[in-house]
NitT/TauT family transport system substrate-binding protein
Amino acid sequence: MARGIRALTTLVVAASALTLCGCSSSESPSPAANAQSEVDLQEPTDVTLGLTYIPNVQFAPTYIAEEDAVYANAGANVTLRHHGADEGLFTALTAGEEDVVLASGDEVLQARDQGMDVVAIGSYYHTYPVVVAVPEESDIDSIDDLRGHSIGIPGEFGSNWLGLLAILNNAGLSTQDVNVVSIGFTQQAALAAGQVDAVVVFTNNEMVRFGLDGMKVRALDVDQDALPLVSATLVSTREWVDAHPDAARAIVDGTTQGIERAADNPQHALEVTKKYDDTLNDPASFEGARAVLEATIKLMTTGNGAASGKQDLDRWNKMGQFLYDTAGVLTQAPDVDAAVTNEFASR
């Protein structure tokens, strides 16, 4: 049982004891009072939340929501589970070993295309994190200037690849107009050595690392609001959310509150994350995580800096069309209405 649950149980027991000691009336509690007591004493629903990858400050809101008993107070007894790269993203979810997992919107639609009844129930990132970076001294000043130049990507897969396709498409370009080079996850080294003219990176990963290492680069201007892609979301199965709607709301609203707390108090977010990621015991790593957290909070919050679990349904629809029109991504037009819902987000 999580610390927050133990504390909540202790408070309930103590409150019950005080009520018994202080009650001198011979009248029996009304049926309504008994019903309310049963609700108050109801145990939170056990929920396993899959975070993927290794512990990282990018998951700080979930760590905060668990450690600060935000999930518990909302009605969910949460177990956080990190699974490795060798495990399929939705394997544990569809097997019932996880109840909710963090995944990108494109991964949701691709999983549904393969017959999995997964559904996005709440926003985690409001902004897609992929950008194209060039050396500060480069004469490439815009996406249009990339025409004829080489662009390094880890490979033709995942968010980097889809992000590049969307960025080029919005500028009226295609992969035929540039030289796409698969370089693995060596963007910094490849750009520094001049192997490529530009690289596709994450704003809260490689862009942060460039700065920490003193490498001067620029991210080319991209209208993020126009990108037809949805990044990290809270995902479950339709079967689970239909059976546990209150727990689904607890996860979405609890995570949203965790994001809010991380934004309001980054130091607390870092201290809580250190309990999960022992590499942050190193002062340099701790400060590096601070920079990553700062960049990540910008992705998690809306344009006015607010935390919200509501998803942009219009962007979901645009993503569905974009992925269907992009060869090799989806085999049929997606049912976006079945893939995403805002019914579990209160704000």
The beta strands are 45-50, 76-81, 100-104, 118-123, 130-135, 150-153, 179-182, 198-202, 217-219, 232-237. Residues 1-41 have pLDDT under 50 and may be disordered.
